[in-house]
């Protein structure tokens, strides 16, 4: 909760730390996921990496993400939808690797 309060004080939190992964136990998996996403990050809006960070890496609910980002709960799912569209080529590439 402290991070959410700090985030409210500084909007740069969402831009600068969107790719930080704090959980050491899952760091290898998270780092592998970030390496895969690395080439696609420049095409994402600032809120889309935030969505990935909070929903995938931290397992936050839509409500928690909305509160942290100061948006409506109905806005957050649109970020996921946008990400699925933008990352569809990556998904297809990963399916071919299997």
List keywords for this structure.
98 residues; mainly alpha
How do the helices and strands line up, and which of them pair or pack?
Blueprint: H1 2-9, H2 12-16, H3 27-37, H4 47-57, H5 62-69, H6 76-86, H7 88-97
Helix pairs in contact: 4-6
Q: Could you explain the architecture of this structure?
A:
The structure is a single chain. Residues 4-16 have low confidence and may be disordered. The protein is an all-alpha fold and 98 residues long. It has helices at 2-9, 12-16, 27-37, 47-57, 62-69, 76-86, 88-97. The longest helix has 11 residues, at 27-37. It contains 7 helices and no strands. The N and C termini lie far apart (39 Å).
